[in-house]
Structure formats: C-alpha cells, structure tokens
Recover the amino acids of this structure.
C-alpha cells in the first residue's frame, strides 16, 4: 500500500515538473517566434517594403535613411517620447502589414454601429463558455499587441545597422560586436572587446536570443538618461512591491528585524550618496509619529514627577525640554534658512 502511494506521489511530482517545463519551453518558443517576426520585418526593410501607404519607418521617424535612425532615437530625452514613436510604428506599419488592423489602439469615440454591436452582445443569452472564450480572445490579442511592441526596438536597431553586421541563424541573431562600442559590449554581453582576438578590421559575431537583442537594442537606441530612468523605474517598482508585500502581511518580530536591516541599508545608501534632504525627511517623519513619540513621553513622565525636570527624548538622546527649538524645513536648505533666521545668523 505504501509503495503504491509513493508511486502515485512520484507520478504527480513528475507531471508537475513536466507542466512547469512546458511553460518554460513555451516562453523560449515565443522568443524564437519573435526573432522570426523581426527577421521578416527586417527583410521587408531591405527590400524597401516596410511601409503601408504613406507610412514607413523613415517617414514616421522623419529621417532619410538608416544612418539617421540611431541619432534620432538617442535624441529623445524621455521614455514617453520613445513609446510614442513605437506606438506610431506599431499602429501604422507593424500591425497593418500583418493584417491585424483590428488591434490598432483607437483613441476616438465608438461609432454608432460599434455601440449597437456592443448592445446586441450584451443582450445575448449567457452561455457556459462565453465568458471564458471572450477572455481567451482578449488574452490572445493582448499577447499579439505586446509582441508587436516588444519587437519594435530590436527591428529599428537592426534596420539602423549595415546588413553585413548581423545575420539570422537558427532563430537567433548573430551580431558583429566589433561594430559596437566597448561600453555597450561590456554592458550587454559582459566582456571587453579587447578580450576578442581578431585582426584589426575583422568581425566577430555573437549569438543573441530575443531577450539579449531587446537589451542590446535599448542600449544602442536610448540615450543614457532614458536608460537610467528605465532602470530606476524598475528598481522603484520592485521596491514598492516589496514594501507593499511587507507592510500588508501580518506583523512578526523576525519580519520587523529584517525590515530594520533593509531600512538601515537604504539610509546608509542615502548617506553615502549625500542624499541629506531625504535623510532629513525620514528624521522629520519619525518625529511626527504619534504612537512612537507617545511611548517616548511615557518614559520621561517619571522624571518629570520625581525630579521636576522636563526631558525630551530624541532617539536615544535626552534633551532638556527648554532647550528644544522646533524648526521648519524638509530639505537641508530650508532647514538652514529656518535655523539662521531663528538665531539671526547673517549669510554672506
């Protein structure tokens, strides 16, 4: 009996392993398919067919040829501007060429025909699979639209390059890294060009899957300010998510101690990078906490009663109440202004 249970348990574990691996393999297959889509559009550009009516890669960017693509895109100083260019290219070229005009994002109000169609759909009888089927269609359309967005920058990058510096092979892209800057090669591929032993003027091709090609494209097409902004936004999102998870779950001493370690590390980071305004804001926030400061007042009450001495605790520092002066300022500059004004200090 025990043996049968063990076999059953083992079978379930193997089945779960198989299903999880299918998810991973599907992701890899999607990456390969994305490379295939990029190859298709890149070849259309070489054949001067990457256009729909009056819209093409070059008219949307406002450049004459592939030589102007990188300089134009690196001249965009915000991610929003780059995303606007991407949206225009996807809506006017990428999706229409693929006969997917119905996925073009519309900003105008619905027509009377579309409104009547919506009303008719709402009046239809409920069927057991209707909601799920509608959800499936939405998931599919979102995946296509997301893929169109994701392949845009890699396509623009390859279209900006001389065709001798890249080639497609086995659902990957071979990139001549000798045509890239040292900084980009180190950042994307993790090695220095000087480590490549080739003759001067020779080429050295590195395989890129879709994820690597995306990273490379952003490094080449985006200026440093935008790239840094993307990285900082991702870090902020991760920090916000971690903070939300930590503060929304049940309190425990272990979790509180781990939070302290994290907070201390972050404050040290501010200190090391001269984020003094932010440290002051943290300090002021601590002084504004009600329950915490009530607790500190409770500690000083016996001193007041027994010694007739009024004491304020600022962290672990005891200060006579009469010596405490409340100043205004949530930045070092404003604090300085408030301090000098209070004590009549003249600044040259």
């Amino acid at each position: 009996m025990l043996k049968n249970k063990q076999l059953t348990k083992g079978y379930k574990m193997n089945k779960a392993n198989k299903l999880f691996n299918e998810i991973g393999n599907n992701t890899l297959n999607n990456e390969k398919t994305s490379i295939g889509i990029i190859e298709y559009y890149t070849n259309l550009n070489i054949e001067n067919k990457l256009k729909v009516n009056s819209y093409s890669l070059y008219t949307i960017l406002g450049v004459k040829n592939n030589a102007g693509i990188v300089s134009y895109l690196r001249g965009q100083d915000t991610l929003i501007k780059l995303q606007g260019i991407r949206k225009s290219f996807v809506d006017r070229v990428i999706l229409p060429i693929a006969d997917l005009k119905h996925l073009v994002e519309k900003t105008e109000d619905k027509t009377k025909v579309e409104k009547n169609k919506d009303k008719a759909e709402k009046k239809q009888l409920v069927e057991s699979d209707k909601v799920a089927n509608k959800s499936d269609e939405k998931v599919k359309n979102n995946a296509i639209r997301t893929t169109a967005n994701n392949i845009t920058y890699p396509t623009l990058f390859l279209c900006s390059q001389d065709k001798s510096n890249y080639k497609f092979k086995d659902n990957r892209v071979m990139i001549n890294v000798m045509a890239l800057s040292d900084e980009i090669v180190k950042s994307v591929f993790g090695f220095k060009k000087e480590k490549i032993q080739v003759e001067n003027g020779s080429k050295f091709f590195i395989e890129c899957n879709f994820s690597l090609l995306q990273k490379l494209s952003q490094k080449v097409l985006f200026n440093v300010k935008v790239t840094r902004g993307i990285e900082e936004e991702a870090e902020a999102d991760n920090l916000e998510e971690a903070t939300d998870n930590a503060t929304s779950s049940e309190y425990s001493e272990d979790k509180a101690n781990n939070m302290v370690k994290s907070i201390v590390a972050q404050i040290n980071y501010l200190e090391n990078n001269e984020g003094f305004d932010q440290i002051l804001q943290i300090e002021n926030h601590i002084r504004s906490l009600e329950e915490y400061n009530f607790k500190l007042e409770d500690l000083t009450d016996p001193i007041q009663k027994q010694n007739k001495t009024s004491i304020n605790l600022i962290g672990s520092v005891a200060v006579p109440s009469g010596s405490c002066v409340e100043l205004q300022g949530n930045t070092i500059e404003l604090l300085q202004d408030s301090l000098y004004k209070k004590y009549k200090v003249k600044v040259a």
Summary: Residues 2-46 form the longest helix (45 residues). The longest strand covers residues 172-176. The chain has 13 helices and seven strands. Strands lie at 51-52, 55-56, 166-169, 172-176, 205-208, 311-314, 317-320.
